[in-house]
Structure formats: structure tokens, C-alpha cells
Amino acid sequence: MNHDALRILLAEDDEDDRLFFKDAISEVKVKTLVTMVNDGVQLMEYLSNPDIHLPNVVFLDLNMPRKGGMECLKEIRCDSKLKNLSIAIYSTSASEEDIEETFVKGANIYIKKPNDFGELKKVLAEVISINWQYHTSGLNKENFLLSI
Amino acid sequence: MGIRNYKFSPVVLRSVFVVSIFLLFFTVSISYKQIQSLTDSSKSILHSHGIRTELELLLYYTKDAETNQRGYLLTHDTSFYKSYENALVKVRESFGRLKALSIDNPEQQKFLESLKYLMDQRFDMMASVIKNTNLQITISESLKKRLLKGKELMDKISVQTDKIASIEKDILIKREVEHTHAVNLSPLSFLLTALFSLFVFIIAFYRIKEDVKKLKRVNNQLLINQELFEHTEQIAEISSWFWHIDTNVLFYSDNQYRLLGCEPHEFKPTLENFIKFVHSDDRHIVEEVNVESIQKLTSSIAHFRVIRKDGEIRYFKSIGKTIIDNYRKRILIGINADITDQNIKDKILEEKLRDLERSNKELSAFNHVASHDLQEPLRKIQTLISRIAEKDISTLSEKGKEYFSRIRVAANRMQKLIDDLLLFSRTNKADKAFESTNLNNILENSKQELMQLIEEKSVTILSPILPELNVIPFQIEQLFINLIGNSIKYSKPDTAPVITIDTTLVSSKEIIGASASADKKFHKISFADNGIGFEQQYAESVFTLFQRLHDDKKYSGTGIGLTICKKIVENHNGFITAEATPNVGASFTVFLPS
Fold this sequence. Notes:
Largest sheet of chain B: 5 strands, antiparallel
Order of helices and strands of chain B: HHHHEEHHHEEEHHEHHEEHEEHEE
Number of strands of chain A: 5
Distance between the termini of chain B: 45 Å
Oligomer: heterodimer
Strand order of the largest sheet of chain A: 2-1-3-4-5
Helix content of chain B: 55-70%
């Protein structure tokens, strides 16, 4: 296990999206360790395992079977052990309601899945280069939705 | 018309009647008094005449006695003596009558007393002459003396009677004057009485005639109202009733029977009979509301079902109220309405509303599908296209490259369509908050949004100072972006676009399609360009969803932009119109309520 690498956890049910994510993140010039889960239930099981190192960033899809991203976000923020996790919402929709609700529930950033691979790489590079501690303290609605 | 005002008339009539009776009684009593005094005066005249006649008789009898006495003295014939005695009796009788006649006059009594004394002396002398000269033919000296004395007495009697007669004559003259006065006065008072009575009768007749005329008019109006009311009741399917609470007498309008499926007056109007028609489950409602109406003196409403004579169940709404009438009696008045048809209509409406809600839900589900499920595969296609374009495009044949570029254009177009559709469905939402907004700021934001396009095509936008309006800010911004964007999109290829914005305040009467009755003020904001324009016949259809006037190649559009504009303007209760001339330009005018 590489301790210097940035630990990234992706919760995504779509196989294609997982593939795009993996491909894009591998081209980013930062050492990363990507773990993937297929839905919210798996995500919560993974996070509740006491043997793992908690990820530096969680990419959370909203639309997932069994347990959705919104529910996971709520549970994470209520869990004393997990509540300081950095969470990036990673969703197809950029509807105002979703953005508003995830912001209120304490997500750190909102990413609308791009429809261009080059753009996806840019977005991921931007997100993982953020100094999360700084970003969390300066959290506001204007820079919540990530725009490149 | 003044049925209530009519109330005061009997009071006036009554007081007029009382005054008339009083005046009539007064004049009649005066007349009666006049007649009475007339009768009195004629009576007293007769009385005075009687006294005078009697006096003359008395004198005549006295002289008769004297004549007969003389005859006897000369002839000693007993027939003279008899006549003399007869005359004496008559004198006495006459005197008695005279006394009786003048019993009311003490002065005359006194004169009569002295007359009596003289006459007694005379008759005593006559008697003594007859006695002393019994059968003597010669006339002695003493006899002569006595005869002279007798003549003297007779003269005195004459004087006395003259005196009495003259007093009586004075009285008579006085009475005659009085009588003449009374006689003159009586016809005048009769005339006055008659005239006054006539006056009262004419006034009364006139008043009664007027009242009857008014009454007739009021009655006529009542008749019309009654007919109108009955007609109204039949058409509106309502009925009316009133209930004299104290006497328990109930009255139903004809339609009350008809609403219950009966002929008018088919049954006796009582609460018990009505309750028989009420659905057994609802009877308690009717009974309770009756008690409530009587106790509270306010109007109360009840809903219940009745079973008509033909067995059909009808829904009734009943409104009752207790009033106090002019006789201070309590009356419960009420209206029953058959609301069955309305109920059915309401149910149909409710169903339609449910249908609408359902289709709205379906629509929002469709929105969700469009925003997530449709976008997801499209986004993947686009991502995959971008991956191929980045790395593998060179491996394709020329034909393959061309096809690939077409795939890319089609995918992008699909993306735009979905985005625009989503935008359109979002403008549907009516629960957005209205805020007082400075439209100049909105225009600035819109220009900022279109900055790249404006610079690219060297667009000139001329605008005046825009007003501050109560609007949904982001929708108006979208409206401005769409209208300016539209003008830029359909500009002439070789001419720099110029967009002229103008604003004025207009009345709703100047807007085609606005209701002219409500005179409201609108802000007219127009966007005129020098673009390619279009035929005026398409001025309506440009606002229709997916309606496009130009082919894809030159002008790319989804046909949603102007539809969104129309939707936004309608959300603001405004209007939007288009005017255009091909190759000259188009002008879009927005009317927003001020």
C-alpha cells in the first residue's frame, strides 16, 4: 500500500462511468489510489470497516440503486467518525434542487459529469489538487458548483 | 318600490279622519244650536202675539159686559143680563189665560195685578149699579155719578191694557229682531257646514283615490315580482318557504313541491310532511338546523338529501333565517336549492383536476427522465466521441471521419434539444417568487451572458433606461437572453446586427388580445433588429414549440427559445407579439403589467 498516494473512493453504479473515471484519473499527474463501490449500501459497508484507511476524497453519485447518494451523504455527516470526510458530489444532473439540497446536507463540492473526456480530466485534476482543509473552511454557495 | 314606505299612510289617514270627524261634529253642533235658537225665538214671538190677542179679547169682553149692563139698565130685559154675566165669565177666563201666558215676565205680572185691581173695581161698580137700580127706569143722580165713575175706570183699564200691550210690543220687536238675526244666520251656518263637509269629502276621496292608485301600483309590482320570483325559482331550481313559528303555519312556494317531485299544494305544508321526504340518515340535520335558526336569529345553512316522490335522491342546500315581521311575530324564512346538478359538475371537475394533477406528475416524471436517464447515455456517447476524437480519429478512413463528424454534430444537437426542453419545463413552474427588479441590471446580466457572441458578431445594442418591475428575475433574464440571442442568430451574414430596445407605458386597450374592460397599465418593451426577418404570416407560429422557419444548415436552433419567451411572459400575466418583414428585420414586443 502506497501511503503517499491520495486515497479516492468512487461510489458509482454505472460501469461506463467507472471506466471513464478510472481512465481519466490515471492520466492525472497525481499519485492516487482509487477504490470503487457500486452503490450506497456498499459504500456505507466499506466506510464502516474499521480496518481501512479513510479516503481523502469521496466521489458520490446521487442516482444509485438500493441506497442513493443523498442518503449516504446524510448518514456520513451524522456519523462522528465520518463527518469530516471530504465529499464531492458527482452527478449527471445539475438541477438547482439537487445542488441546493446537497449543499445544505454538507457536501463539499458539486461536479456535473462532463460530456467530454478532456473536460473530465480537467475537473478531476482540479478536485484532487484542492487543499481540502482550506476549501472546507471557506465553503460557500458560489464556489460549491465546480465550473472549469 | 316603496312597499315599506307605505306604512305611514294609515297614520295620516287616521289623523285626517279624526280631525274631519271633530270638525264635522263641531259644525253640526253649531247648526243644531242655531236651529234651537230659531225655534226658541219663533216660539217667543208666538207667545208675545198670544198675549196681545188675549189682551184685546179681555178688553173686548169687558166692553161687551159694559154694553150688556147698559142694555139691561135701559130695558131690564133679562137676556142682556144673561149676556152680561156671560161676558163676565169670559173676562175672568181671559184674564186667567193672560196671567198664565205672562208667568215668565215679572214686570208684566205687576201690571196685570194693577189691571186686575182696576177691573175688579169696575165690575164691582157694575154689579152695584145693577143691584141698586133694580127695575128703576129713572136715572138718579147717584147713578149718573156711578156711571161717570165707571167710565173713568174704563178709561184707566184702557190705559193699563195699552201699557201691557206696548210692553209686549217692545218684547215682540226685540224678539223679532233676534229672530230675523237667527233666520239670517242659519242658512250661512248650514252652507258652511255643507261646504266644509264637501271639502272633507273631496279631500278624503282624493286621498283614497291616490292611495288606491298607489296600492294598485304596488300590487302590480308585487304581482310582477311574484311571477318573476316563481320563474326564477323554476329556472334556478330553488324554492322558498316561511314558517310562522308562533302559530306553526308553514307556507311553501309552488316550486318547493316541484323540487320534491310533487304537484303544487299536493300535500299540507308541515314540517312533519317535509321530513318524510328527507333521507332518513339526514333527518337529524334538518331538525337540528331548524332549532338553531330559531334560537340564534342568524342565517344557518344545511346540506341534506331528499328522496323525491319518484324515488330519485337529490342533494339539497337549505339556508334559513329567523326574522321579526311588522306584527312583531317570529318568522323562519328559507330557501332550498337543489344542488344535485352542481354536485355532479363539481365531481366531474374534481375528477378533471385529479387527471390534471396526474398528468402533471407524469410530466414532471418525464422531466426527470429527460434530465437524468436521457442525458446519461447521451453524455456517455459524447464522452466516447471525445475519446475517439482525441486519440483514434487518425485511424479512420476519410469517409469514416466524415460520418464521425456527423455523429458528433447530431449528438451535440441532441444535447442542446434536451437542455432547451429542460429549460422550457422549468419555466412552467408558477411558484417562483416575484421581486421588485431593476430591468437595467437584468439587461446588463443578459449582455454579459451573451458577451462572446456579441463580440464575435460586433453586435450593437441600443437601449433606453428600463423601468423597475415586479418580476421573476431569472425568468426575465432568460427572456432577454433569448430575444437578443434570437436577433443575433437570425442576423444577416454580411451586416453587423443592431438591436434597438425601446420602452413605453401603454394602456391595456392598445394591446391586441388583452381584455379591454380592465383598464390596466402595461410596460411595452420592444426588441427590434435588422436581421433576416420573416413573413408576417408566421408571426403567431414562431412562438409554437419546435416550430422553425429556417432550415438547419444556416441557422441552428431548436425551436424552443421563443416558446420559452412566450411562457415567461405568460407567467407574468403579460403578452408577446412579433412583427417582421423579410430581409428588413424582426421586432418582438413584450407587454409586462406595471
